[in-house]
Write a structure and sequence with these properties.
This protein is mainly β. It has five helices and 40 strands. The strands form ten sheets. It has a six-stranded antiparallel β-sheet, with helices on one face.
């Protein structure tokens, strides 16, 4: 497509999508023309990403023509839309450097911040090596960075893909091509992970095998772990999983043999994922297969469309945090004629209706190609694609929205965090970068019967609760009671209010009237008729626990949420008693700042006052607390820390950066 170019003038057309209630897998409003021009093939490679509320961004390539005296062909553009489909301003340039900027990809976090990556050629795509670049933007479309290199630049780099979790951590993958006169061509897949602030480490080798790679994709879970899938030698489809530190979790796993050509990949908050692929032969169906977070298959491959009708269909798939997913693809319906279709699925793999005709040839003209799909937190989706409208003689980037779940589930507790009004901001940021919590909210208390031991900080006076969706919650919905300290009330601390709810992150924070000493705390969150309920629809909190995982709940609304954890100031090694071993640990780490690159994990637990550095003040607290231990456990009317009474415990899963229990154990 990008070779068919002509250069008359251009014009843009913008239509707002009508405001309507979203239903199950039905179109919401007309097709949106994101951009249009009368140059054939001038607008190509549309990609779309959504935040959790349904606001979305579309990026694409735009042909600018050969500027006299310069080598300047394709640039990357973007445009923002709100959840109702209304444009939030005009298209803007993502990258306008000299040369070619092609094959863009985009991902967006829950708050609407997004990252765009693309393939850069300093001269043009035909005469020099490619280099993978990226740029970060906030939810308003303002740049958070300039364009920065992702790959190493040691060989030609092609076809980037990007994934982002709800908290803004991202991972970019690409294909590297090198030619050796003796050994031949070498096509390899690489990945590079970034934290929400743009910090990164060295690229990771995903697959290093001599031979050709046809396509690849990447998906990320809430904890920051990710999975990469690729087609090798046009004959085999593989995936490989990585933990939040970008360390491989085993070797590559075979998904399918035959003639796979294109692959797409998406994951939910838990790390369960779905792979979609097609073959490069006309009789091959379009397929998906689901896998759990350990990489074990959930059933056999499933046929999305029995006959793709054309060579090289390019399926794209996206998944919401609960595991609902949608697939889109283009299909040949006549000689040289294509249209865009999609299909929505529930988390159990059952289809949410039949094939959707997103855009057919009746009005659009012969070519609708390269669709992309994005889902928000409620499963509502938007599909974007490129097309040529022969009636209007225009090249267009288009989008259309569809409703997802007709009956959203009740809200659930997605995580419990503990912090302090006197905690250093740098300490909070370090917790987040280490995968131990979230800046501004505190330490993520893991779920389960063995949550890593007591919390050792001396100034704990805040509790935050994360919800899976927007809720109506009040200060008196939470009760905090200790075995030794009795009932803990709430009170403002300076400029910090006694209670605050952040609708953007679905986080409620309570400030205690006093700091917690050595105590066993139990939180009780009201899930009754007068308690926590969804902001939209009014469903009550699903607080009952039935499994070993966050979020709470048994699938039905109603039921209080109960959660227990321990606090023992000075217990640096978190064994339930303050001893000389804790003094030795604080002394050994004296002077170490928690955000130092080589600081051991134990540093954050030896920094007793959460100042971002282990100092003499921490040793003083430990020495004054020598001999102290947790009070006796209450009578067996409740469960172990991190459980709901006698019910089974919870374990991490949420639309935020929640992390495995092993990540927070002291080193």
């Amino acid at each position: 497509m990008i070779a068919r170019l002509r250069r008359p003038g251009e014009r843009f057309f913008v239509e707002g999508l009508e405001r309507r209630v979203l239903f199950d897998a039905v179109a919401v409003g007309p097709v949106e023309v994101v951009a249009a021009t009368t140059e054939i093939g001038a607008l190509v490679r549309a990609q779309v990403a959504s935040d959790e509320h349904g606001n979305f961004v579309v990026v694409w390539n735009k042909y600018l023509g050969d500027t006299p005296g310069e080598a300047h062909d394709f640039d990357v553009f973007a445009r923002l839309y709100d959840a109702a489909g209304n444009p939030r301003g005009d298209p803007f340039v993502v990258s306008g450097d000299s040369g070619d900027q092609i094959n863009p990809a985009v991902a967006m976090d829950a708050a609407g911040d997004f990252v765009v990556t693309w393939q850069h050629h300093a001269v043009n795509r035909f005469s020099d090596f490619g280099r993978i670049m990226a740029r970060r933007f906030d939810a308003a479309g303002s740049p958070l960075s300039g364009a920065f290199p992702v790959g190493t630049g040691l060989a030609s780099e092609y076809e980037p893909h990007v994934a982002m979790n709800a908290d803004g951590a991202s991972v970019i993958t690409w294909r590297r091509h090198a030619h050796d006169e003796r050994l031949g061509d070498d096509d390899d897949v690489f990945a590079r992970k970034y934290d929400r602030f743009g910090g990164t480490s060295a690229p990771v080798e995903v697959a290093l095998t001599r031979g050709g790679y046809a396509d690849s994709d990447v998906a990320m879970d809430a904890a920051g772990g990710f999975v990469v899938a690729w087609v090798q030698d046009y004959t085999s489809l593989f995936f490989r999983r990585f933990d939040p530190a970008a360390r491989p979790l085993g070797e590559k796993v075979l998904v399918a043999n035959g003639t796979p050509q294109f692959v797409s990949l998406a994951a939910d908050d838990d790390g369960d994922f779905v792979i979609a692929w097609d073959g490069n032969e006309i009789t091959n169906p379009l397929l998906t297969r689901r896998f759990d977070r350990s990489g074990a298959p959930r059933g056999d491959a499933q046929v999305v469309s029995p006959d793709n009708g054309r060579f090289w269909v390019e399926p794209r798939v996206d998944m919401d945090g609960d595991g609902n997913y949608a697939v889109t693809w283009d299909v040949r319906v006549g000689q040289g004629l294509t249209e865009i279709r999609a299909r929505a699925y529930r988390a159990d793999g059952s289809a949410n209706g039949g094939e959707l005709f997103v855009h057919s040839i009746g009005r659009a003209g012969p070519e609708d190609l390269h669709p992309s799909v994005a889902l928000d937190a409620d499963g509502d989706m938007v599909v974007a694609w490129e097309g040529w409208d022969s009636f209007a003689d225009e090249s267009r980037i288009m989008a259309r929205r569809y409703g997802g779940a007709a009956d959203p589930p009740p809200p659930r507790v997605a995580g419990v965090l503990v912090g302090g009004t006197r905690w250093s901001p740098r300490f909070g940021r370090d917790l987040e970068s280490r995968g131990l919590g979230r800046q501004g909210s505190g330490f993520l208390v893991p779920a389960g019967p063995a949550p890593g031991g007591p919390l050792p900080w001396s100034n704990v006076d805040q509790v935050s609760i994360l919800f899976t969706r927007d809720v109506l919650v009040a200060a008196d919905d939470l009760t905090v009671r200790g075995t030794a300290g009795g009932l803990y009330g709430f009170a403002a601390a300076g400029e910090t209010p006694a209670f605050h709810y952040d609708a953007a992150t679905h986080t409620a924070t309570w400030t205690l009237a006093r700091t917690v000493g050595g105590d066993r705390l139990t939180l009780t969150l009201d899930g009754g008729p007068a308690g926590v309920r969804a902001a939209s629809g009014g469903k009550r909190l699903d607080g009952d626990g039935t499994g070993a995982a966050y979020p709470s709940g048994d699938g039905a609304e109603g039921g209080d949420f109960r959660f227990a954890f321990d606090v023992l100031p000075g217990d640096a090694n978190r064994d339930g008693r303050v001893t000389g071993a804790d003094v030795l640990r604080a002394r050994a780490l004296h002077g170490v700042e928690t955000d130092e690159t080589d600081a051991p994990p134990a540093t954050v637990f030896a920094d007793i006052n959460a100042s971002n550095q282990v100092t003499l003040a921490d040793q003083v607290v430990v020495r004054r607390s020598l001999g102290r231990a947790l009070p006796p456990a209450p009578a067996a009317t409740g469960g172990a820390p991190g459980t709901t009474g006698g019910r089974a415990p919870f374990a991490p899963r949420l639309r935020r950066q929640l992390f495995a229990e092993s990540a927070i154990l002291p080193g």
